[in-house]
User: Which sequence fits this backbone?
């Protein structure tokens, strides 16, 4: 059990400030996802929480106690790395037991029991005697997670743990991690990813970062339904939210109007806007129609099932009434 | 046209292989000829021959049974091995600091170490002589172990630093999260991963110490304390016109064979070790 | 959202708490570096300073501690004779010293140039795909593995005036009209030294250049091939510029090595004034002629000359020791 507080946390490497003052409260037992484009500082922020980097200024507190100076091993954290970072010369068992053997006064039977329990949970018991190089990527990832579980952490940190796996394995492991969170419900988890789908599916709450600052914090649905900025609106959701600016947005009293593809309806005539079909994609369960209508990027309409529009067709579209997002010139929402 | 094209190709291939053969023969021949000479005794020695035509162990027996050559061999082995172990021990920890810890002046320190390894040894000879005399280790193996540190230590530090820099940072961070101290990281995580690098570096440093001549010539003064290079250089007969070529070649072959075998066994590793010290820097 | 409302950020004056981890690492780094630094100070730093100091004294082998400060006398001193003629003495006007400087520079220039050319050829051969490449690589490692003293002895036997195989070969092939005393003759002694050094050191050069060659992506050549660039042009326009950083580093390593050469010359051509280098002369004065202070002056000068040349080379050649690829 640990709640984590960041108060005006800043991190600079030399003259370059990477984290520019972050305030955040992560609740005990919560699954928090840091998401953002590359270079936004999400991994650095995680490493600050882990204690692998020094905080330049500001405070980091675990359960109200400032831990800025505390060594990583004393923070009650465990971390799963992008490259798994298993010790190549140690067996799976030794990899998982290494941290415990370094703690004074943990006896051998206790270590064995804890490693075996974790192995059981992750179904890697048959591999305990193997070396990491004898395992597949997915198995290695489990060992890395197992090594973290054995430490019995209060806080579980994941640094893009799925990015080295192929697409199918990524989905399977994602479900695995979600299950893990349910079974360890009083462990706080922080998960870094650049993939908004991972963020949406795993998180209790998401923290969207941009250029070293928090853009918005909220549950996946809050971010989806009430984005606090043009950036968040564009970052969360797939396909990307359509932005319509300029004269077409004026009737709505906004600088930019944002509508998601699934909130646009195609009308036979008399729509709010009209455009020419330039491309269609049929995915089976749903389909996308791309329209050219003078916006910066083509407008996407998401339809259920299969559609029969062809390139060159002129169609009329209207947004669903309460699904319009209006933004002012600064990219802030008008509500 | 096809015919001439083929001819050109054949000529090219032939010339290429002639070059290859020349490189191989030119590299190997002197050593081959030394072996040939080492098996010749008496007047056979002074008859030039290109193929083995006489065979006698006489020179080897002479070198190994008379004089202090066996003792010199032991000296060389002891001095080189001790120097290397000492250098590796000091270098492992130092290269961890140089490759893994950010601190001010690190680049300058690395350049200094490189500069020391490229040092003209003659520049420190007078001062080293004084230090060795005042330590009371003149004409002992310790004089050489001490002075060889000047080239083995910077070399091993430099090469191990480049090797260690290439170890993945996340493994170290995983160990930090596991609660490992720098010492534990070095001994229980990095060293097991680095043993090939340690072997290579150690071998190269060993060869350097084994071949060293200037210090060995200067800091030892009696037949029993010399190392093999000095012993070979000073092997002589009664007068300058009686140079014992057969014995010299036998001694040369004895000290070279182990090196050649080691180098051929570890050739891939040695090439990577040499280039780690040179190109990648 | 209410629970997330944070207390207003506390005023945190620019305190930067250095964490336990960073402190531990900094402390460890200090202790890890200390033994090495002490060792280098004792075997390199202090002796260098003492050598320089001795060059300003009248020290002799048997009187190191009673030596007296004589200023620049070992380097240059003059006396004005009664006749009004001034006589200069000391290292800076010693023809033997300048002869040795000349020998050293000549040796370094020739050996490094030839080693670079031959090394490049061998590296290009090894960089090609052909049957038996492994054998060639093993073969060229042999000269490198042979101790310098041993190769000096081997070659002085092969170069022997009466019974040497090279004279025999030269006569048989009609290249020589009479047997040559390679190592004893003043005209050929330097050539002999160069032959042995080039033979022994070209492999090292070749391996360093090869490493540079192997870093050049293959598709560049494929692109050049498609564009129909002639192989010779490919070498000068693609290979040479791209391998330049590696070559420059290899050359400086070799140059520094060549400038301090001692053992090969000491064994192959002892007592030959036409090959005596700075190192050989300095050691002779230090330990054989009992001119300890004068020898120290020589070694100090040698150190200065090498330092200046190195700095010039690095500066003019824009050598980067990080290999230029990071």
Assistant:
């Amino acid at each position: 059990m640990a709640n984590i507080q960041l108060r005006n946390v800043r991190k600079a490497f030399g003259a370059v400030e990477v984290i520019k003052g972050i305030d955040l409260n992560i609740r005990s037992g919560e699954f928090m996802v840091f998401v953002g484009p590359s270079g936004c500082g999400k991994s650095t922020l995680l490493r600050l929480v882990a204690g692998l980097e020094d905080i330049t200024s500001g405070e980091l507190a675990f359960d109200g106690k400032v831990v800025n100076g505390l060594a990583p091993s004393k923070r009650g954290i465990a971390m799963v790395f992008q490259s798994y970072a298993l010790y190549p010369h140690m067996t799976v068992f030794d990899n998982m037991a290494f941290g415990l053997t370094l703690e004074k006064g943990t006896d051998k039977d206790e270590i064995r029991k804890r490693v075996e329990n974790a192995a059981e949970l992750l179904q890697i018991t048959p591999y305990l005697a193997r070396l990491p190089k004898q395992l597949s990527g997915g198995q290695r990832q489990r060992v890395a997670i197992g090594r973290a579980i054995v430490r019995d952490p209060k806080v579980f940190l994941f640094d893009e743990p799925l990015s080295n796996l192929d697409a199918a394995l990524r989905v399977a492991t994602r479900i695995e991690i979600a299950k893990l969170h349910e079974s360890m419900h009083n462990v706080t988890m922080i998960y870094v990813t650049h993939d908004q789908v991972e963020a949406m599916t795993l998180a209790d709450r998401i923290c969207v970062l941009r250029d070293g600052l928090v853009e918005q914090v909220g549950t996946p649905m809050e971010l989806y339904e009430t984005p606090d900025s043009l950036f968040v609106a564009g970052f969360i959701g797939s396909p990307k939210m359509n932005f319509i600016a300029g004269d077409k947005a004026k009737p709505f009293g906004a600088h930019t109007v944002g509508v998601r593809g699934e909130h646009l309806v195609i009308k036979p005539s008399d729509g709010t806007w009209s455009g020419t079909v330039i491309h269609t994609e049929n995915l089976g369960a749903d389909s996308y129609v791309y329209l050219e209508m003078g916006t910066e990027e083509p407008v996407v309409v998401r339809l259920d099932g299969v559609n029969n529009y062809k390139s060159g067709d002129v169609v009329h579209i209207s947004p669903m009434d309460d699904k319009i997002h209006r933004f002012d010139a600064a990219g802030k929402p008008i509500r | 046209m096809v015919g001439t094209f083929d001819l050109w190709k054949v000529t090219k291939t032939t010339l290429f292989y002639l070059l290859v053969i020349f490189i191989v023969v030119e590299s190997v021949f002197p050593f081959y000829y030394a072996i040939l000479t080492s098996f010749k005794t008496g007047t056979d020695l002074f008859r030039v021959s290109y193929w083995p035509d006489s065979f006698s162990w006489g020179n080897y027996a002479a070198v190994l049974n008379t004089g202090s050559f066996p003792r010199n061999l032991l000296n060389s082995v002891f001095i080189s091995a001790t120097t290397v172990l000492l250098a590796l021990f000091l270098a492992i920890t130092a290269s961890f600091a140089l490759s893994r810890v950010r601190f001010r002046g690190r680049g300058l320190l690395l350049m200094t170490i490189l500069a020391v390894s490229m040092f003209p040894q003659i520049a420190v000879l007078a001062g080293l002589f004084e230090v060795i005399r005042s330590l009371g280790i003149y004409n002992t193996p310790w004089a050489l172990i001490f002075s060889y540190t000047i080239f083995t230590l910077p070399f091993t530090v430099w090469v191990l630093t480049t090797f260690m820099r290439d170890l993945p940072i996340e493994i170290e961070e995983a160990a930090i999260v596991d609660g490992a101290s720098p010492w534990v990281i070095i001994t229980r995580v990095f060293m097991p991963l680095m043993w090939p690098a340690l072997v290579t570096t150690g071998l190269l440093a060993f060869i350097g110490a084994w071949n060293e001549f200037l210090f060995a010539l200067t800091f030892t003064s009696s037949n029993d304390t010399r190392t093999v290079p000095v012993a070979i250089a000073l092997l002589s007969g009664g007068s300058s016109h009686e140079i014992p070529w057969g014995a010299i070649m036998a001694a040369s072959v004895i000290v070279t064979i182990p090196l050649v075998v080691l180098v051929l066994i570890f050739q891939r590793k040695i090439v990577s070790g040499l280039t780690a010290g040179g190109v990648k820097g | 959202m209410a629970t997330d409302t944070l207390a207003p950020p506390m005023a945190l004056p620019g305190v930067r708490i250095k964490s336990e981890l960073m402190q531990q690492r900094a402390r460890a780094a200090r202790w890890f570096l200390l033994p090495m630094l002490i060792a280098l100070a004792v075997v390199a730093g202090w002796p260098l300073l003492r050598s320089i100091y001795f060059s300003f004294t009248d020290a002799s082998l048997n009187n190191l501690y009673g030596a007296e400060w004589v200023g620049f006398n070992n380097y240059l001193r003059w006396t004005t004779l009664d006749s009004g003629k001034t006589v200069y003495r000391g290292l800076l006007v010693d023809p033997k010293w300048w002869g040795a400087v000349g020998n050293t520079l000549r040796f370094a220039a020739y050996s490094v140039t030839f080693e670079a050319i031959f090394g490049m050829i061998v590296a290009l051969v090894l960089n090609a795909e052909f049957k038996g490449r492994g054998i060639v690589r093993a073969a060229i490692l042999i000269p490198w593995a042979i101790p310098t003293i041993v190769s000096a002895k081997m070659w002085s036997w092969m170069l022997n005036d009466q019974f040497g195989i090279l004279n025999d070969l030269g006569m048989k092939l009609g290249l020589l009209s009479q047997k040559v005393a390679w190592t004893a003759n003043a005209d050929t002694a330097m050539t002999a030294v160069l032959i042995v050094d080039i033979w022994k050191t070209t492999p090292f050069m070749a391996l360093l250049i090869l490493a540079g060659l192997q870093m050049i992506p293959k598709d560049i050549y494929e692109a050049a091939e498609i564009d129909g660039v002639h192989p010779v042009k490919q070498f000068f326009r693609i290979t040479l510029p791209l391998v330049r950083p590696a070559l420059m580093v290899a050359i400086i390593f070799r140059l520094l090595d060549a400038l301090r050469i001692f053992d090969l010359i000491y064994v192959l051509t002892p007592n030959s004034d036409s090959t005596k280098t700075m190192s050989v002369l300095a050691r002779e004065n230090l330990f054989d002629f009992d001119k300890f202070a004068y020898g120290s002056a020589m070694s100090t000068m040698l150190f200065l000359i090498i330092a200046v040349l190195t700095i010039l080379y690095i500066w003019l050649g824009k050598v980067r020791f990080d290999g230029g690829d990071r």
In short: Chain B touches chain C through 92 residues (CB under 8 Å). Residues 2-56 of chain B form one domain. Residues 2-38 of chain B form the longest helix (37 residues). The radius of gyration of chain B is 24 Å.
